Amino acid sequence: APTITIQSHSDDTEMLEGYTESFRAQASDDDHDFEDLEVAWFVGEQEVCAWEIVSSAGEAFCEIVFTPDDTSVVAEVRDVQGAGGRDEINITVASTEAPVVEILSPVNTNNYYADQLIQFSAILSDAEDLPEDLIAVWSSNIDGELDLNNTPDSSGEISDFSYLSEGEHAIQLLVEDTTGKTTSEELVIIVGG
Q1: CA–CA gap between residue 191 and residue 188 (Å, rounded)
Q2: 188: Cα within 13 Å, side-chain hemisphere
């Protein structure tokens, strides 16, 4: 029967939730060529990479994104006669943090007017991601998504200016990290005529 060994990771490796991990395994079979071997990957019982013929060097690859409930990775190999082998490693998946957001301006104690530019600024941070990798979107319940430069600098600060129409605005800043976790901050400001 063919054999397979997961070589990219060792047993009891710790992964981060939501990030893509690249796995590699080496298959071999004394009485079959590599083109006769197929490998599939599983997380627990769920197939995450379908059956595929190994490379000319007998290698198999799989990209996996983990959730906190995942506990094992399995690589299975089979030959054209149906004989098979498997290798399994245990994993621990650490939960990741949502971004942290602090709105600096506008503030709900200031007076704002429809014919004057309003500054929109905030500090963004995340335990796992660089500030530049965070996605930020400002919006108003009256004016919708605001067309602002929301690319953070290396210290996590975003700052830009825009006009708002007259009225009572519920302003929201929504920030998303590379794993899809989001945080939002809101405030209400009055914009006069």
Answers
A1: 10
A2: 2
